[in-house]
Amino acid sequence: MAKLSYEDKVYLEKYLQMEGGWVLDFNNESLKRFIYENIKLDISDKKYEIIGTSKAKRLRALWDLEPDYQLGKLIKSFILYYKAKRLVNPSLFNASEDLEKSCEKIGEKLFQKGVSPHIDSISPIDDDHDFSRLAITIKDYIEKNEPELALDRLHTFYVKFIRGLCARHKIQFSTSESLNAIFGKYLKFVTNLRIVESDMTISILKYSINILEKFNDVRNNRSLAHDNKILNYRESLYIFDALARLKGFIDGLEDEISLENKKGQENGLLDKGDLF
Fold it and tell me: Tens digit of pLDDT per residue, the chain (276 long)?
């Protein structure tokens, strides 16, 4: 849900000429098309009728229901549209420079919050070129606000990631094993190291095995890995956030393992062949 202040809404409503239920010079169909082309949301959806059915009321509902990044991107798109229309109809598109700058600041503030706070967790664990390209591709989709297009690549990323961790720690696995099965082996290894303090954290990690099993199904049946009807935007972003957050937590565990290995070496307690 976007966080617009009362003052933000005053500026935006004035700029978009929303008095009387209008939004600039859009009709119902052109507004629907404009919003979908820019942020992949259908303004005609019933959920946007919570305060009324006019164009302005639907847009106000969208402000209240959708996340910061999407609203920021939409505001920036409205401003570009406004500037283009001003060239051909300056009498109608006549907002002051101060008002336009205020709206630009609002759009940029929301846009900078990003689609996902966990996007930086999608990074490779080695210098493999293909792994790096895969991570870049996933980030590109997320930054373009298209998480539904990233799901099949995210699954491939996770397979390479978990297999890489198992190879690093000499955990035996077969390439025919599923992602969740291999992750289960890695989790058993981590549990035996006793670097995770709470039983609750272990339980959450164990449940992640089930999550990855479900991810196999999403990849096979609701992503572009095959000729499927792709999953909707909101759920795709939720899945990305959950798995990117898990990746970030695992990265933290790996850092701790590396630190313990280094301490062991410095203290003469471990030979290089005895590392975790």
Answer: 668 999 999 999 999 999 999 999 999 999 999 999 999 899 999 999 999 999 999 999 999 999 898 899 999 999 999 999 999 999 999 999 999 999 999 999 998 887 888 898 999 998 899 999 999 999 999 988 889 999 999 999 999 999 999 999 999 999 999 999 999 999 999 999 999 999 999 999 999 999 999 999 999 999 999 999 999 988 999 999 999 999 999 999 999 999 988 887 777 655 544 555
Could you give the CA distance from residue 119 to residue 142 in angstroms, rounded to a whole number? 8
Yes or no: say if 30 and 43 are a contact pair by the CB < 8 Å rule: no
| d(C-alpha 48, C-alpha 60), whole Å | 8
Query: CA-to-CA distance for 13 and 1, rounded, in angstroms?
Result: 18
Q: What CA–CA distances, in Å, run from 174 to 94, 185, 216, 228?
A: 66, 11, 17, 28
**Pair 82, 94: CB distance under 8 Å:** no
Instruction: Identify whether the C-beta of residue 256 lies closer than 8 Å to the C-beta of residue 265.
Output: no
Which residues, including other chains, have CB under 8 Å from residue 12's CB and lie 6 or more apart?
4, 18, 63, 75, 103, 106
Q: What gap in Å lies between CA 61 and CA 44, rounded to an integer?
A: 11
Against a cut of 0.85, is the pTM above it? no
How far, CA to CA in Å, does 19 sit from each of 89, 121, 183, 248? 19, 44, 55, 46
